[in-house]
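Hello, quick one for you while I still have it in my head. No rush at all, and the record is pasted right below.
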Amino acid sequence: MTVTRELLAYYEQDREHSRLREGRGRLEFWRTQDVLRRTLPPPPARVLDVGGGPGAHAEWLSADGYEVELLDPISLHVERAAELTGVTARLGDARQLPVPDASVDAVLLLGPLYHLHERADRVRALTEARRAVRPGGLVAAATISRYAAVHDTVYLGLYLDERQRQAANAAMADGIMLSPGRGFTGYLHDPDEVPGEFADAGFPEVERYGLQGAFWLYGDVNDWLDDPERRALMLDAQRSLESVPSLLGVSGHMLTVTRRDG
């Protein structure tokens, strides 16, 4: 993917290293882990973690026994991921994967689709994932909800600011999020447009999982996540709601999972 000046500046702040390890970002992390552990082929298997950042998911995948190769367009992320035990990391573009055809058991796209503003580029990334994965292998891709910017800016109190409010409302209208002052730029999906992009890449059947549900918007979400017993209850609750179609757009992130046919 093209690393724009804005994208590089955002990720060079090194926010991604802690984003999934602290605060309510842990809900996204644990729910992604939960869904993947239920859907991935058993270890040992070769997993290509495309756009894997500094390796938050690559780390536990390696610990679970998977052979993990991480690709990312940000040098800082690759350097961090390369320090993880059992993880191979190198620079790479989701639209042109540097691996042979049918050479991995699973491809994860847990970030690229919301940094590719053009639909053709997103379909190309999914098509590349299909090329790289073996028949019967899994492809899983994360997307950000079209409504996440409005929800998040209200939660953070930023919706009171006119520029933030206009940016969030614009993203809800056309999917393009240009966050003033925060540096994030990305594409936000309507949940119902995701299956069409997968279909155009050769995946006619998908399974969709809302990762955070409404819980990421609760004022006391961190209290729940800090307490192991309450956290388990919250994760179980969201698992029971994860594929309800009318609730998918409430989640900040959705994970779409499919398998390559023969």
About this structure: The chain has a mean pLDDT of 94.
